[in-house]
C-alpha cells in the first residue's frame, strides 16, 4: 500500500545518533498528520548501528530497515531506500543529525507550490571551511554551469521529490547529488529552499577532498548520457573530424616546408603527426559507429523508448502516460 510520505536515510556507523534522529523525526512526522514511513538503510556499518535499527523497527511498524552485506556507498544506499519507498513524496536525509527534521514541513510546503523537486540549501553550513565548504562551493558552481540547473548546494542530501520524477532514475558512483539535474532534464520543476545545518556531534565525516574528483567525473558521465546517449556518434565522430582536420593541416604545413625548400620531410615531425591524426580519426569514427550499434541494441532489445511522455489525449480524453512510458 502506498503512503503520502517516505523518509529515506542512509546510515554508516551512526550508532550514537540514530536513536536521537528517530526521536526528532517521529515528533515532526506526527505533527504533519499524513501517512508516512521511514526507510533506513544500513550501508554495511561495523558498529552497533544495525542493532539500534532493529530495536526501532520492532517498536514502530512504519520503519523499514535494509542492511547491506558490506559498505557500497551513499549513492547505493539511497538507491535501495528509494526503490523500497512507497510514498508519493520521497525525502532523503543524512543520518548524522546535521540535517534538521524540522525542515521537512518547509520542503513539503514549497513543493505544494507546484514544484516536483525541492533541494535543500545549507546557506549557513557548519563544516570546515578549507576541506569541505570551499571545494563544495567550487564544485557547485561548476556543476550549475555545466548542467544548466542553477542550485547553490548539490551536496545537501535533504531534498524532496515527487515519486513520478524519480522512479526512472538509476544511480551509480556519486550520482545521488545529481538527481535534481536528472529530474530537471526530464521536464520537472526544480526549486531550492534554505535549510538548517547543524554541527556534527558524533563521529567524523566519511568524506573528504578525494571525493571532488569523483564528483566531477560522474558529472561528465551524466552530461554525456543525457546529451549523447542516443547519438554517441556526435561525440566520437566530432573528435574524429577534429583529428582529420589536424591531419590535413599538418600535411599541408609539411608540404609547404618541402616545396619552399625550408625543411625536408625527415627534418620535421609533421608527417608523423599527420599519420597519427589520421589513425586517431579513423579509430574515433569506428568507436562512434560501434557505440551507435550498442545504443540501438540497448533500446530495441529491451523495448525502451528514447523519450518521456507526461500526458496522453486519446479519444478526446486526457489520461496519464502509461507507467512504462513514464519510466523510460
Explain what the structure shows.
This protein has 328 residues and is an alpha/beta fold. It folds into two domains: 3-227, Spore Coat Polysaccharide Biosynthesis Protein SpsA, Chain A, CATH 3.90.550; 233-305. The chain is 48% helix and 15% strand. It is built from eleven helices and nine strands. It has helices at 18-32, 49-59, 74-84, 104-111, 129-147, 163-166, 179-185, 210-228, 233-259, 270-301, 323-327, and strands at residues 3-11, 36-42, 63-67, 87-92, 117-121, 159-162, 190-194, 311-314, 317-320. The strands form two sheets. It has a seven-stranded mixed β-sheet with strand order 3-2-1-4-6-5-7, with helices on both faces. A two-stranded antiparallel ribbon has the order 8-9. Strand 2 (36-42), helix 2 and strand 3 form a beta-alpha-beta unit. The protein is elongated. Mean pLDDT is 84; it is low at 323-328.
Secondary-structure arrangement, i.e. CATH architecture of the largest domain: Alpha-Beta Complex
Rg over CA atoms? 25 Å
Q: What is the number of beta strands?
A: 9
Average pLDDT over all residues: 84
Q: Which stretches of 5+ consecutive residues score pLDDT under 50?
A: 323-328
- Which percent band covers the strand fraction? 5-15%
Secondary-structure element order, N to C: EHEHEHEHEHEHHEHHHEEH
Q: Give the neighbour order of strands across the main sheet.
A: 3-2-1-4-6-5-7
Provide the CATH topology of the largest domain: Spore Coat Polysaccharide Biosynthesis Protein SpsA, Chain A
Describe the oligomeric state of these chains in a short phrase.
Answer: single chain
CATH class of the largest domain: Alpha Beta
Report the span from N to C terminus. Answer: 24 Å
Secondary structure: helix percent: 40-55%
CATH superfamily of the largest domain: Spore Coat Polysaccharide Biosynthesis Protein SpsA, Chain A
Amino acid at each position: 500500500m502506498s503512503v503520502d510520505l517516505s523518509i529515506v536515510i542512509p546510515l554508516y556507523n551512526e550508532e550514537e545518533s540514530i536513536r536521537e534522529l528517530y526521536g526528532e523525526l517521529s515528533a515532526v512526522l506526527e505533527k504533519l498528520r499524513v501517512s508516512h514511513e521511514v526507510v533506513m538503510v544500513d550501508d554495511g556499518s561495523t558498529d552497533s548501528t544495525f542493532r539500534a535499527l532493529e530495536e526501532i523497527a520492532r517498536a514502530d511498524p512504519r520503519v523499514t530497515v535494509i542492511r547491506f552485506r558490506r559498505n557500497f556507498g551513499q549513492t547505493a544506499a539511497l538507491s535501495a531506500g528509494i526503490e523500497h519507498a512507497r510514498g508519493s513524496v520521497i525525502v532523503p536525509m543524512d543520518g548524522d543529525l546535521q540535517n534538521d527534521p524540522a525542515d521537512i514541513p518547509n520542503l513539503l510546503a514549497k513543493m505544494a507550490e507546484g514544484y516536483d523537486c525541492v533541494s535543500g540549501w545549507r546557506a549557513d553550513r557548519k563544516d570546515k571551511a578549507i576541506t569541505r565548504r570551499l571545494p563544495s562551493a567550487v564544485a557547485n558552481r561548476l556543476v550549475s554551469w555545466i548542467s544548466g540547473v542553477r542550485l547553490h548546494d548539490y551536496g545537501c542530501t535533504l531534498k524532496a521529490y515527487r515519486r513520478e520524477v524519480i522512479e526512472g532514475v538509476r544511480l551509480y558512483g556519486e550520482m545521488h547529488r545529481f538527481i535534481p539535474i536528472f529530474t530537471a532534464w526530464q521536464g520537472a520543476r526544480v526549486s531550492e529552499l534554505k535549510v538548517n545545518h547543524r554541527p556534527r556531534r558524533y563521529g567524523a565525516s566519511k568524506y573528504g577532498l578525494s571525493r571532488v574528483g569523483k564528483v566531477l567525473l560522474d558529472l561528465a558521465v551524466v552530461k554525456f548520457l543525457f546529451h549523447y546517449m542516443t547519438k554517441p556518434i556526435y561525440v566520437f565522430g566530432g573528435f574524429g573530424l577534429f583529428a582529420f582536420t589536424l591531419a590535413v593541416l599538418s600535411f599541408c604545413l609539411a608540404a609547404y616546408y618541402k616545396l619552399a625548400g625550408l625543411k625536408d620531410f625527415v627534418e620535421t615531425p609533421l608527417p608523423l603527426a599527420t599519420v597519427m591524426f589520421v589513425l586517431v580519426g579513423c579509430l574515433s569514427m569506428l568507436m562512434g559507429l560501434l557505440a551507435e550499434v550498442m545504443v540501438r541494441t540497448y533500446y530495441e532489445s529491451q523495448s525502451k523508448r528514447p523519450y518521456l511522455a507526461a500526458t496522453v489525449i486519446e479519444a478526446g480524453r486526457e489520461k496519464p502516460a502509461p507507467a512504462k512510458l513514464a519510466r523510460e
